[in-house]
Amino acid sequence: MYAMRKELNQYRQAGPIAEIAVADPHRLTQMLFEGALERIAVARGAMAQNNVALKGQKINQAMDIIGALRGALDLQRGGEIAANLDALYDYMIRRLVTGNARNDANILEEVAGLLREIKAGWDGIPEQLRRAS
């Protein structure tokens, strides 16, 4: 049974790795949003189960992903939109720190909602514009 579980986990990990290898920048950004949302969801579950170690690990991973999204912003060319996203990503990271410290699932959900909203806008970019950039 353990061997089968190990193989299943390897398969699960191989899927995203293979997708990363062929993904365009737009898809990579979508995958970052998805990864952050997934980690926040797992952190909320860990919080409900009083699994402090897993909660902290997943919140830290979500903060790393949001930090990567923030680091990818082109503040010189992105103008007001990039500046607003930079401030919003900073806010999200600070809120995740607070949510972790206070063990507050509502704060994690607040951040997840913000991420979903940005992701929805990103997902709505027409294919023509994706290829143009």
UniProtKB/TrEMBL annotation:
Broad class of the protein's primary localization: cytoplasm
The entry's keywords: Bacterial flagellum biogenesis, Cell projection, Chaperone, Cilium, Cytoplasm, Flagellum
Homology family: Belongs to the FliS family.
Domain of life: Bacteria
The protein's name in its UniProt record: Flagellar secretion chaperone FliS
A Pfam family it matches: FliS
Keyword Cytoplasm carried by entry: yes
UniProt-listed PANTHER family: FLAGELLAR SECRETION CHAPERONE FLIS
GO cellular component: cytosol
Annotated coiled-coil segments of the chain: none
GO biological process, one term: bacterial-type flagellum assembly
Keyword Cytoplasm: yes
Subcellular location as annotated: Cytoplasm, Cytosol
Transmembrane feature ranges: none
